[in-house]
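Predict the 3D structure for this chain.
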Amino acid sequence: MSTAVAAHVLLSNYPFAGLETVAQFASRAGISAPSILRFIARLGFGAYADFQRHLKDELEAQLQSPLMKQAPEQANASPLSAFAAAVVA
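Done. Predicted structure below.
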């Protein structure tokens, strides 16, 4: 039952509930900190820090600007070079 509660709290405030401390996450869910750690282990993470690192990486990827997402060989080109190439073609 505590796994379902932890999952509900995480999904209802994703990913920010998972970025809180274990104690804060547990308090928000109304369950114990060890229950949160068991939940995180069931998700496949060896430690709470690994879980938080995964959430931070996911959040960083979502927040990247379009310029950061483009291929490295395109990053050095002018933002308008693709448009210019299409016009010329």
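The mean pLDDT is 86.
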